[in-house]
Structures are given as C-alpha cells and as structure tokens.
Design brief:
With about 425 residues, the protein is mostly beta strands. About 10% of the residues lie in helices and about 35% in strands. It contains 5 helices and 32 strands. It has a 26-stranded parallel sheet that branches. It has a two-stranded antiparallel ribbon with strand order 10-11. A two-stranded antiparallel ribbon has the order 13-14. Strand 31 and strand 32 form a beta hairpin. The longest helix is centred in the N-terminal third of the chain and has 20 residues.
Length: about 425
C-alpha cells in the first residue's frame, strides 16, 4: 500500500510541475516549435527554381510541392482570385528584382502547411542574408482608424493599379485565407523612398483569416506588421529580426497568444528595435478618433533577448526595451515572460499616468527577468509610480534575475531550442520508494 501511495504522490508532483511549467510564456506539453521551424535557415539548400511567378495572378492558381517557385519582381494575386499552396512547397524571392507576393484586397491565399511539411518563403542565394527579397503582403477590407476611406500600401510596390495595393473597409469578419505552418526567411528588402519591407504584412485583414504557426526569421524589416484590421494570431515566431518583431498600428485589433520573439543585440539594425511596437498612428492628424484605436490583447508570450554579455551589451547601447506602448493604445499582456531587456517596457511620454490610462494598459501574471528596470515613461528615469502600481500583489507579476540556462528549458540549442519556462521538477530516487508494506 505504501508503494502505491508513494507512486501516486510522485505522479502528482511531476504531473503538477509539468502543468506549472507551462503556466507563463509559450505553452505546450511538447515543444510546439518542433519540427516545422528552422533556426539555421542559412544552412539549408532549397534547390533551384523550376517555375517563375511574375506580374498579376488573375485566376485561381495552385502551387505544388514538386516544383520550386521564384517570385520575379512584385507579384500580385488580384481579381478575387485564390492562390493555393501545397504543404512542403518552396517559394524563393528573387534577389535581383527583390521579389515579393501581395494578396490584394478581395483575393485569398490558402497556404495550409503541416508541422512535418511547412511551406517556405526564402532567399535563393547560396549566402543568404536579411533583405534578400521583399516579403509577403495580405490586404483585406477590415477597418482601420485612418481618416481616409481608401488606404494605399506605401511600401514602393510596383503595381499596375492602385486597386492592387488598397486595403481597409468595414468588414471586421472578412476572410483573406490561411497561413498555417509557414516560414518566411531573409525578407525585408530596402527601398530608397519607403524604407524596409516586412516579413509578413497584414493590412486591413479580418478575423476570419487564419494566421497560426508562422515563423519569420532574419528579416531586415519588421517580422510581423499589422496595419489596422482585426486578427487572431497564434503560435507565431519572430527570430532575430533587424527592426521590430511585432508592429501594430492604425487601429489594429489584435489577439495574440502563445507566441515567441527572440532578439539578438548583434542582429538588430541601427534603428531602435523592439519585440512589440504598439502605436495607433504615425501622424496624429491622420487618425480618426471616432474609430477604434489600436488594441492588443496578449497571452502567453515569451519575449527574450539572447546576449553573450547582457550587462556589457546594455552598457554600450545594443539592448532596448521589449515593449513600446504609444499614445491612445490599449494593451494588456497576461501570463507572459519578458527576459533580458533595457528596460522591459516603455510608455510614450504623451501618456498621462492616471486611472483611465492605467485601466487600459495591463500587465498581469507576467515574469520580468533580467531586465534593467521594468516599466518606464519615455525620457523619465523615475518609474516609482509605475513600479508601485504594477508591483501590486493583485497583478501577480514576478520579478527575477535568473540566468537564461536556469530560466528556459534549452535556449542555447542552436538547431532545436526550447524557449518554454523551466520549473524544477521533483523526482523520487529509487531508494526512496519502499517495496515493502
């Protein structure tokens, strides 16, 4: 009887710790990054192109795994067309013409990969680098907060008609397709007049669109850029982007969960780069305040900065804040991990610290680790009021200085890392269990 009781106790202890292990940050009893992600994409040979995609795609088209496709210049899916991509298909962005793919408003993409056969957008160069090609754009007719009724995507896309790059409308429930088990690598070309492309841009995309299990790695621009719209994002990965991992703007209504951002001070560009940049507009005069402003609801995020020498990298200015929250933005984050930043969060200095604003900016049950300061107002070195507010027991936030090796399960694994939070498990030694009654 004693043996049964001890085994039952052991099971409950281990089982309970497995559950606890998944409480904060990215969740899952298994490491959901395996096997569809790739953390060494520069080492992979994707083969030579066998098919060319160029100009406008104006009728329903399917791409097959048996071919390797090259995006030659800016490619547009237009005229209410559906582009379907088989699991395992490779699409290469041409380096010379900086190929890109745009799903125009009213058209759809169905890129429904699998965890063993993801769909891959990547560079075709033997020596791959960030910015080798353009990126992926999905445009829909969900609302934005702009004064203008017609919005045009100003990224320098070479389109034959403004209609191909227009977005926004009144349909929050609109459906632009599926992106599932998709990798986007080495995107983010730079244009002379418009700055950098992003890995994945969602402009005016509606909430019926499915965006899950998407990894953007080594992007020269933002990994994910959400412009207006209303979207649900789940199991996203941003890995070593040069600018921001997640950019939210122009009244974006976003629910993001179980997602990861991994920054490196040695991969970021010259501009200030963050895991999350949440703003409501670029210019205040462009925003219609009768419309919904940017609203982000985040759960179970892991935002981590990987540094060989964090104190030194902070000292020489290579590490920024993890999250920036702009004026008129509503932002809540729960059950998440923010590790290794300077500081963890910065509010725009235009945000007045009062009960109304603090009610719409929430940090709850979040683990702040190894950050040089937690939550500040921009340009204000005194954060005592914010520390007292968010440090209140009611919010259940946790503050620590744990090293990465003790914080994450296997962060240093170069091929298949595990960024889930580590919690010590309890195991009984063999000689602790009595074979007798």
């Amino acid at each position: 009887m004693k043996k049964i009781t001890q085994f039952a106790l052991l099971f409950l202890l281990v089982y309970g710790n497995v559950f606890a292990q998944q409480e904060k940050g990215i969740t899952g009893y298994d490491n959901w990054l395996n096997p569809w992600t790739e953390f060494k994409p520069n080492k992979v040979d994707y083969g030579k192109p066998t098919q060319i995609l160029s100009g406008n795609i104006t009728r329903d088209t399917k791409l097959y795994k048996g071919d390797v496709y090259m995006l030659l210049g800016d490619v547009f899916v237009t005229d209410s067309t559906t582009l379907t991509i088989e699991p395992g298909t490779i699409i290469i962005g041409d380096f010379k013409t900086k190929g890109s793919l745009t799903i125009s408003n009213g058209s759809k993409i169905v890129a429904n990969g699998t965890h063993t056969d993801p769909i891959i957008f990547t560079s075709g160069r033997s020596l791959k680098k960030p910015g080798d090609w353009g990126g992926l754009f999905i445009l829909g007719d969900a609302p934005t907060n702009t004064i203008s009724k017609e919005n045009v995507l100003n990224f320098g896309l070479n389109s034959s008609s403004a209609k191909d790059i227009s977005y926004g409308g009144t349909n929050s429930d609109s459906y632009s397709g599926i992106l599932k088990y998709v990798r986007i690598e080495f995107a983010g070309k730079r244009t002379k007049d418009y700055g950098y492309f992003n890995g994945l841009t969602l402009a005016g995309v509606g909430q019926q669109t499915i965006i899950e299990n998407v990894m953007v790695s080594y992007c020269e621009g933002n990994s994910f850029n959400v412009i207006g719209g209303e979207v649900n994002l789940e199991k996203l990965v941003s890995y070593k982007s040069s600018i921001n991992d997640y950019e939210f703007n122009y009244g974006a209504q976003v629910n993001i969960s179980n997602s990861l951002a991994v920054r490196s001070p040695y991969a970021s560009g010259a501009e200030v780069s963050r895991c999350i940049n949440a703003i409501s507009y670029d210019k205040k005069e462009d925003a219609d305040f009768a419309k919904s402003q940017t609203n982000i609801e985040a759960q179970n995020l892991t935002l981590v900065n990987i540094s060989d020498n964090l104190d030194n990298d902070i000292k020489i200015g290579l590490v920024n804040e993890a999250i920036f929250i702009g004026e008129h933005v509503s932002f809540t984050i729960d059950n998440s991990v923010i590790s290794g930043f300077n500081p963890a969060v910065i509010f725009d200095n235009k945000i007045t610290i009062n009960s109304q604003n603090l009610d719409r900016i929430g940090f709850t049950r979040t683990y702040f680790n190894n950050c040089k300061g937690n939550i500040f107002i921009k340009y204000n070195p005194n954060n005592e009021d914010l520390e007292n507010w968010y440090g209140n027991r009611a919010f259940n936030n946790v503050y620590s200085k744990g090293p990465d090796a003790e914080t994450f399960i296997d962060l240093k694994n170069s091929s298949k890392p595990d960024f889930r939070l580590r919690i010590n498990r309890i195991f009984a030694a063999n000689d602790d269990i009595d074979d007798n009654d």
